Amino acid sequence: MRSRPRPAPDVTRPDSARRGVARARCRERLAQWMFIVPAAAYLLLFFGYPIVKNIVMSFQQYSITTFYTGAAPFVGLRNYSEILSSDLFSEALLTTVLFTAGSIFGQFVLGLAFALFFQRSFPLGRVLRSLLLLPWLLPLVASGTTWRWMLDADSGVVNGALRGLRLLPSGVPWLTGTSQALVSVTLINVWVGIPFNTTILYGGLQDVPTHLYEAAKLDGAGPVTTFRHVTWPLLRPVVSVVLVLDVVYTVKVLDIILTVTGGGPANATETIATLSYELSFRQFEFGRGAAMSTVLVVVSLVFALVYLRANRRAQSG
Fold it and tell me: Can you give the pLDDT at residue 5?
């Protein structure tokens, strides 16, 4: 008997399979780019362009006249040399450091305390957590105006309460004293930032496994030991994010200081952010104001990078 001839191998199947895989990969890449391109375009348009424009303006002599004509001459590093060599910049830098350090310390410590407090379940706990968000949700101008009225030396409720309780014979110049004004705006900023720190830290505490607390309790560990050896090591990644965001938000605080003190008295609450606003929108020196804004961005980035690197070394060590 004759054997039937075997059918020729279908050489087109491998090629068609390859083309199908290639088309699937192209569709996957296209879908990825469809998600990336709108976000990248938004960031470049609303964040990248203003930053680049601000940097370019910092090297130009931008005033009211050149702002309308558009013919601002380049002056190189003259704007930076003028602002960095002024006595007001050194004072504003010191005020910025004190204001930022005091605000972050108060916000973080009190926010962590509230987060640990709300970790326990008790009646009306959710209601109190919701009410704690009010300072963060209110407009900063409204909060600053309210605090300015409360801290008024003559008719403020704070001095009225202190005099009523006979704690002080006379009112404290919360907003008119050179030393008290910085403390006042720092405390107000702490009040505003506590809800943010509490919310983020409370979310981090919810991710700590409960069986670790149970094991620590069985070993006889107290609250301080449990926090030191269980809570804090697992909470450190969240703490890093919170502190970096606190610095970025606090360094550029403008609304509260302008509303409460306006940078006074005698430049006691003048920070780099308020000084940049003063140069740009009151003295109309847009070039020097842009240079001051660039310095502010560089200070924020340097601190964030230094802290992240130090925290990474501490975790690896």
Answer: 56
Residue 175, SS3?
coil
Can you read off the two tokens belonging to residue 182?
Answer: 């910085």
CB of 294 closer than 8 Å to CB of 55 = yes
- Domain extent for 50: 15-58
DSSP 17-74: HHHHHHHHHHHHHHHHHHHHHHHHHHHIIIIIHHHHHHHHHHTB---HHHHHH--PPB
Residue 285 within a domain: yes
Q: Region 253-277: what's the mean pLDDT?
A: 90
- 261 within 8 A of 269, measured Cβ to Cβ: yes
Is position 123 within any domain?
yes
Residue 290 belongs to a domain:
yes
Cα–Cα dist 183/149, whole Å: 16
Residue at token pair 């209601």: 127
Whichever domain contains 282, its CATH number is: 1.10.3720.10
Residues 6+ apart with CB under 8 A from 142: none
pTM for this prediction: 0.84
Please name the residue that has the structure tokens 């606190």. 246
